[in-house]
Amino acid sequence: MQGRNERNTVELRSDACEKTWKVQMDGRRLTVGWKEFAGAHDFRIGDIIVFRHEGNFMFHVTGFGPSCCEVGYEQNNIRNLSMEQNLKTELESLSDSSCFVANISDSNLREDRLFLPRKFVTSNDLKKGSNKIVLMNGVKTWRLNLRFRESSETFYMRSGWRRFCHENGLQSGDSITFKLESNSAKTPVLCFSTAETKSDSTKHRSEGKRKDGEKGLVTLTVTPASIKYCRLYLPRSFIKDNKMETAGGKKINLLDKHGVKWPVSLVMLKGNGQMHLGLGLREFLEATGVKANESFMLELDWEDTTIPPIFKFCSKIKI
């Protein structure tokens, strides 16, 4: 790659999360950004890291342990990349150091834990000896465990975070504001407010304003890697809205504009809820005239959930 990458920057991705990480290169060494990527994936000394170049300085990264077994990111595995979103600045600090905004995500709900921003921790002198944290809204209190993760030097609260969100009507995509009320007796107390923190998608669901037909439409963008590796991901929100979690691992049909059926594999990745179109995708794209760096719209036809879903090609989309 020497002499070809004038930007001195590459992009890294993995099967563990949707995020793409930008990392700088110095010769053959990965420098700025690599520490964050490795920390989020919990890579350790002795691990084997495999890079697969997908074109345009994009690399797919897979980690293997010292035994040459692929690093898993299952729900109860301490190497789980639930920390992916948490370590990518899941929490945004406010100008007031005693306050921070937390974003509710699929990962922190699934893992039942939420990381506290470092700026909040250092500004308010939270101590490692603290093992409980109290959340309160003036009416009710919730006591959660408070833990410290040495590798990232970050506090997180767990064992009750999911229940807290459920009882306050918080869903993935929502946000909540916390303010430190007290930091005495080794048990921090946070006050919170959920007013006007609902995401637009949650508001639309709760108000019933979303049209039934809209959730069956999805716009996908084809990259050179999509064509080369026959892999095109469906948005998680689309999968969730259409209850497609059980449809993975099957052959489905994509219909072109003439109604011709093109069989394509629908692949579900274990552990992170991602789903992508697989083998057969390249032939479908050729038939519909969709090329790399172009977008197109599909419509889901799946009234009978006892059979595999069908997608109808609608049109190309100009971005």
TrEMBL record:
SUPFAM superfamilies: DNA-binding pseudobarrel domain
Pfam family, one: B3
Gene Ontology MF annotations: DNA binding
PROSITE patterns: B3
GO CC annotations, alphabetized: nucleus
Keyword entries, A-Z: DNA-binding, Nucleus, Transcription, Transcription regulation
Domain TF-B3 residue range list: 1-67, 99-195, 217-316
SMART domains linked: B3
UniProt xrefs under InterPro entries: B3_DNA-bd, DNA-bd_pseudobarrel_sf, REM_fam
Localization: Nucleus
Domain of life, source organism: Eukaryota
Name of this protein: TF-B3 domain-containing protein
Native species: Arabis nemorensis
